[in-house]
């Protein structure tokens, strides 16, 4: 019974995502970005006169900037704060929907939306590079290695989604949440490019926190660091979710609506 109600809430949220124009705009923007990355990788291969196009190297290159993260962050920040902005939470509670159903239904729907977002972008990226490269080059690939790497990336994007959900419950205002999220991405960029080198940090986000700039994480060698990566991902997924749920249980949603 409880699971069924969560599923019903999730289906309702998925319908909202499907009808959300911003989701499709952000998806189209991200698809354009990954197409540009495929085009750049192809021309780099031509300029380097490589004998074959490596899908392994292309997969690493696909996560070498914020092409996927920026559009996704914009959508998620506005999606998670929309119910605070419109007062939907208080309406749902007045109809007898429990906070557990609201919380997990919305989070699961966001995870499914993010996976759909990623799969479409991956499809555009690999289809683009194959169409451009197949006529002139041999294609070098390893399905198992690429699949494992993409799985880790997807899990990390789900963790990133849980973190933005937490940020939304902490700050609640859509503009403040969006600004804070992009500010933190800027701090992350500085960490990855400047701060960690300057401070000689051993715990590398290049290796273990692989959303975004992860071109230092090599597909053929990430198995050597698999245990720290998995531990980080477990914490990354469950800690923000647990803290978010605790906050959501304590929020005076009707009071927020009155203010």
Cα shape: elongated
Task: Report the total helices.
Answer: 11
Largest beta sheet: what is the strand line-up? 1-2
The structure class reads mainly alpha
- The rounded distance between the terminal residues' Cα atoms is 34 Å
Mean pLDDT: 83
Q: β content, as a range?
A: under 5%
Report helical residue fraction. over 70%
H/E element sequence = HHEHHHHEHHHHH
Question: What about the largest sheet?
Answer: 2 strands, parallel
Unreliable segments (pLDDT under 50, ≥5 consecutive)? none
Number of strands: 2
Radius of gyration, taken over Cα atoms and rounded to an integer in Å: 20 Å
Which secondary structure elements does this structure contain, and how are they paired or packed?
Blueprint: H1 2-18, H2 21-47, E1 52-54, H3 55-62, H4 69-86, H5 88-94, H6 99-133, E2 138-140, H7 143-171, H8 174-199, H9 205-208, H10 226-250, H11 253-258
Parallel strand pairs: 1-2
Explain what the structure shows.
This protein is mostly helical. The chain has eleven helices and two strands, in the order H-H-E-H-H-H-H-E-H-H-H-H-H. The chain has a two-stranded parallel ribbon with strand order 1-2. Helix 2 packs antiparallel against helix 4, helix 2 packs parallel to helix 6 and helix 7 runs parallel beside helix 10. It is elongated. The mean pLDDT is 83.
